[in-house]
Sequence to fold (127 residues):
Amino acid sequence: QVQLVESGGGVVQAGGSLRLSCAASGRAFSTYGMGWFRQGPGKEREFVAAISRSGSNTYYADSVKGRFTISRDNAKNTVYLQMDSLKPEDTAVYYCAADRSPYHYSKYDRLREYDYWGQGTQVTVSS
Fold:
């Protein structure tokens, strides 16, 4: 079992920035595709961004493209989500997820693709 712990959430003014971190346990982090999802109030959990095992490929939801950047440091067992130009609609609990499957590249935006999930970190963007 892999444990994922998100951190870095908080309250920020619209237009501001936050960087989320997700620290993973275990020795196989570099074999996992990683994703960030979020769930706003009264909404379903939705895909935000994903990154391939090596970090060479990244994927973004249209709603965050150009504003968010996902990255990973396999030596630190950590994936990051740099969030810039934040908007009130970005307010949500942000979840980190890990996918053991080699097919992550084709299913990176699907919740059910991911095997492990963190508990989430709250991001609140005020207007």
